[in-house]
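Tokens for chain A. Residues wanted.
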């Protein structure tokens, strides 16, 4: 299979893996599915026979042409040429409905795609996603507080979805084989902003400030963001250690601190 390095293409060729990935989405008979980066259609072929409607979003024009011809007699399949990061997902979602998302995410833009999906999930557009990505990124997305991999991406993901690590594939599952292992995650979108009493925009900004420098304590990161020692002291919850780092905190106490700070102070821009 010819590969275009600029698109980060590594095509899935493991038959058991492609079926397991689609199986992870569950019953699709009444669902619309958006597939990111279908490539030569290894997963598309299975989805086409299972879901009510399939929208396959492919950046490579040559592959788009190939897929359009291959699925020309299957009206439930729509092949769209486009960059997922420049696509308004709202235009692909049936009015009043949610969609499921599946895809082998290009390694070099995985985080950007995830952020776009989180935003769509918060808007009530996505119910579930099964996504394959570089193992190291998947470990960060699914990491629990207190471990080295937990950081901004972990907290952001887990504010927006329940994350489940499904399985890992060796490089030999792809053609050409990448230099890394790939992990498949399932995300059940369930934004927690209302539950934790925080606004999405403000809390997302707050998390970025808290994780700005992982080796610094949370208080030092907040001071660097513009909060004074006095304001932090007044707002600091009794149950949080003064020397804690952001990577050690669950989302609940992080939200408690955000609410407490928001009552008394707004950092300088």
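Reply:
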């Amino acid at each position: 299979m010819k590969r275009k390095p600029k698109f980060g293409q590594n095509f899935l060729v493991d038959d058991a893996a492609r079926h397991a990935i689609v199986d992870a989405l569950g019953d699709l008979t009444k669902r619309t599915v958006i597939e990111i980066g279908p490539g030569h259609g290894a997963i598309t072929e299975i989805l086409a026979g299972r879901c009510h409607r399939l929208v396959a979003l492919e950046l490579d024009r040559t592959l788009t042409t190939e897929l359009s011809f291959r699925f020309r007699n299957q009206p439930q399949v729509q092949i769209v040429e486009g960059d997922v990061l420049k696509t308004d997902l709202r235009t692909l979602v049936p009015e009043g409905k949610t969609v499921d998302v599946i895809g082998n995410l290009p390694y070099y833009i995985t985080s950007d795609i995830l952020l776009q999906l989180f935003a769509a999930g918060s808007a009530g557009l996505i119910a579930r996603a099964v996504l394959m990505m570089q193992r190291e990124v998947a470990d960060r997305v699914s990491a629990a507080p207190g471990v080295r991999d937990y950081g901004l991406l972990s907290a952001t993901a887990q504010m927006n979805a329940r994350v489940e690590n499904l399985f890992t594939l060796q490089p030999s599952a792809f053609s050409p084989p990448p230099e890394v292992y790939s992990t498949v995650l399932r995300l059940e979108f369930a934004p927690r902003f209302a539950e934790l009493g925080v606004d999405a925009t403000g809390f997302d900004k707050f998390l970025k400030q808290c994780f700005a420098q992982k080796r610094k304590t949370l208080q030092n990161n907040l001071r660097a963001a513009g909060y004074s020692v006095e304001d932090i002291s007044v707002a600091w919850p009794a149950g949080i250690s003064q020397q804690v780092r952001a990577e050690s905190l669950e989302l609940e106490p992080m939200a408690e601190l955000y609410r407490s700070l928001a009552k008394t102070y707004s950092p300088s821009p």
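Residues 1-7 have pLDDT under 50 and may be disordered. The longest helix spans residues 251-264.
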